[in-house]
Amino acid sequence: MKCVKINGVSRLVKNRLSAKPRPRGRPCWQILRQTNHPNKQKILILTRGWQAAKSLVFPVHCASCRQACHGSADRLLICTTCEISLLRHRTSSCPRCGLFSQAASRGEKSSLLPANCPGCSQRKLWFDATLALGPYRDELREAVLRSKRSTEEALTLSLGALMGRRLGPLLETQEIDLIANTPTHWKRRWQRGVQSTELLLTGIVSQVKLPVASRLLCSKRFTKKQGTLSSAERFRNVSNAFRVRNRRQVQGKHVLVVDDVMTSGATLNELARILHQAGARKVSNVVLARGQCSS
Q1: What whole-number distance in Å separates Cα of residue 183 and Cα of residue 138?
Q2: Whole domain around residue 127: which residue ranges?
Q3: Where are the alpha helices (DSSP H) in the chain?
Q4: How high does pLDDT run on average in the chain?
Q5: Is residue 153 part of a domain?
Q6: Are 262 and 130 a contacting pair, CB within 8 Å?
Q7: 37 within some domain
Q8: Cα 206 off chain centre by
Q9: What is the Cα–Cα distance from 258 to 86, expressed in whole angstroms?
């Protein structure tokens, strides 16, 4: 409080500039834990009781199977059963293109390196590293296809959060300066009603604290759907289809690009190319699923 004159009358007013702002983005019970309130323990017990009662009356549902599951109602989640099924084919992968070893999936000892990886030997790659949640098959493939629908935003956000939880420890060691998502042309966004890669990015940064640049990349022209083309046609389809909005923002930076699925790598390779031309020091990818290379 401080004394000021208003219309000649002295009044006490709050000094809002010097007041300590209340922490945001955390529940009150988490803030209470750091205080010395006399009734702190009683309030925490009541809070836990209220949360338990709320979960009984309004149970949390898995964003994938939609079954009731245990967890906090304040966050989107995927149940343990679905998480295990989504990750059950995850094996060793190439550190550069993220291709999963088929031999390792059969239980054989095998490790892919860029020197002997079929995904790295086919073309010149502009990106430096790729992390994937799992191979593009079975339950994870179905989840990727569902995430492209406008009615599955909760699932897409939860899959992004799962990527952040599972791949976060690896991402934190990479000294990443910016995280951006693959852009979608406005016509395709209008057709689908959603931009799934931006939702995946939102889910990832809810678990891993990274500087977000969601509008860094944009699509210059409408392209054919990659899934309908051969590998060679995919690279031609996305050639010169994107641009970097702010070149200064990436100069000397390590940029992480988020996508839902990587098969031929044409889209991510083209984005890495223009990012390097804009001055990026390093470009890495993080994808929900990694498909096998096709001819």
Answers
A1: 26
A2: 93-290
A3: 28-33, 40-57, 80-87, 102-105, 118-121, 138-147, 153-171, 186-192, 196-205, 231-237, 266-277
A4: 82
A5: yes
A6: yes
A7: no
A8: 8
A9: 18
Strand bridging mode 254-262 / 282-290: parallel
Cβ proximity of 284 and 255 under 8 Å: yes
**Closest by CA position to 88, among listed 129, 143, 130:** 143
More confident residue, 75 or 65: 65
Q: How far apart are CA 132 and CA 100, in angstroms?
A: 9
Those residues whose C-beta lies under 8 Å from the C-beta of residue 272, and which sit 6 or more positions away, are: 125, 126, 127, 128, 257, 283, 285
The answer to whether residue 112 sits within a structural domain is yes
**CATH number of 196's domain:** 3.40.50.2020
Determine the Cα–Cα distance for residues 18 and 272; give it in Å rounded to an integer. Answer: 45
- Cβ(176)–Cβ(97) under 8 Å? no
Q: What is the pLDDT of residues 193-226, one digit of tens each?
A: 889 999 999 999 999 999 999 899 999 999 998 8
What is the count of structural domains for the chain?
1
Helix-then-strand count for the chain, H and E: 11, 10
Residue 49 lies in a domain: no
Distance between CA 142 and CA 140 in Å, rounded?
5
C-alpha pair distances (Å), 80 with each of 90, 147, 165, 205: 16, 19, 13, 21
